[in-house]
Design goal:
Elements: H1 2-14, E1 23-30, E2 37-46, E3 54-64, E4 67-76, E5 81-93, E6 98-108, E7 117-129, E8 132-146, E9 149-164, E10 168-176, E11 185-194
Parallel strand pairs: 1-11
Antiparallel strand pairs: 1-2, 2-3, 3-4, 4-5, 5-6, 6-7, 7-8, 8-9, 9-10, 10-11
Length: about 200
């Protein structure tokens, strides 16, 4: 296991130069001993820069094996702005090992009435091999001026890998912006600790 993590850590560091956006996400999860509760706190650093930091808080409820809903709060240090909204997760099992997880997020800034709302769709198509899953991740950011005016500003799509242990999970993604007018690449490392 250590060899795999070392290999992928080196791979991650070797391609940093290609990426314009590099968030390092640490997530702490717990249920406080309450059935179906899901509490998650995420300090997010953009290549370990405090000026680019973001903090996210999710308080969720597990409806069933494939469905979760969260209250979602976010504070962007770089904008000095607070957002609130919701997140909805729905997993589809094609086979026991092949799944599509659909994650929908909607955010609004209550203190800035001039700002547009943000809608984010994150699909993960993954195939599981024992403790490692491989597949594709999408990260599609939308600006919502009003229900009839939704603009896709950043459609990132690319390969993803998840390594899962009992209390520890890591996810690596390399997502180019599929918009032909943009050369942005989102390289992301998500490290999850289950408390």
């Amino acid at each position: 296991m250590k060899k795999k993590l070392t290999y992928f850590s080196l791979l991650f560091l070797s391609i940093l130069g290609f990426s314009q956006t590099v968030p390092i996400i640490t997530e702490f999860r717990t249920d406080f001993g309450v059935e179906n509760l899901d509490f998650r706190f995420r300090p997010v650093f953009f290549f370990l820069s405090k000026e680019r930091m973001r903090r996210e808080l999710f308080i969720g409820y597990t409806i069933d094996k494939t469905t979760k809903i969260f209250s979602y709060s976010r504070y962007n240090d770089y904008e000095n702005k607070f957002y609130t909204g919701f997140r909805f997760d729905k997993k589809i099992y094609f086979t026991k090992n092949l799944t599509l997880n659909n994650q929908f997020r909607y955010l609004n800034s209550p203190s800035d009435k001039t700002d547009t709302d943000i809608g984010i769709y994150i699909p993960d198509l993954l195939y599981k091999f024992n403790k490692v899953s491989f597949g594709l991740r999408g990260f599609i950011i939308n600006r919502v001026d009003k229900p009839s005016q939704i603009s896709i500003t950043k459609p990132f799509i690319g390969p993803a890998m998840i390594v899962k242990e009992e209390k520890f999970l890591t996810m690596f993604t390399f997502l180019p912006d599929v918009n032909e007018n943009s050369r942005d690449i989102l390289l992301m490392a998500l490290i999850i600790f289950k408390l």
